[in-house]
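Study the following:
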Amino acid sequence: MTLPPPMLFHTLSDGPDRVAPFSHAVSVGPWAFITGQMPCDPVDNSLPLPEGVAAQTHAVMANLKLVLAGIGCDLSMVAMARVFLTEFQRDYEAMNAVYASYWAPGRLPARTCIGTTGLAKGALVEIDLLVYRPEGIAATS
């Protein structure tokens, strides 16, 4: 019987201020699962959120980039994204315009976008990621 690879739980001291009890990321073999990030200030999540879904999407992406950097990754390694919107019909196009600006042309990850009734902190958008980490990238915790 082959044992599965160990899971590494990444709670980053310099990662975004967490809004709930979770690890910023969990790695299993070459895969890293990045917890959904909020549009909160990365140092103090008690500060007000940015106004509007475009500004909030930029803030979410900045927080995701912090987590990715903390585990030795970047956006080019993202295989899948899930986007959650509380005002789907109203905010879908504006969120897409910002979201698309973070990826190289022709290198968009697979994605699911979901309308939801609410998010932590009253956010309009949250995004989580699935990342493929090629062999040779050291895991950190």
Q: What stands out?
A: The two ends are 27 Å apart (CA to CA). DSSP finds two helices and six strands in the chain. The mean pLDDT is 93.
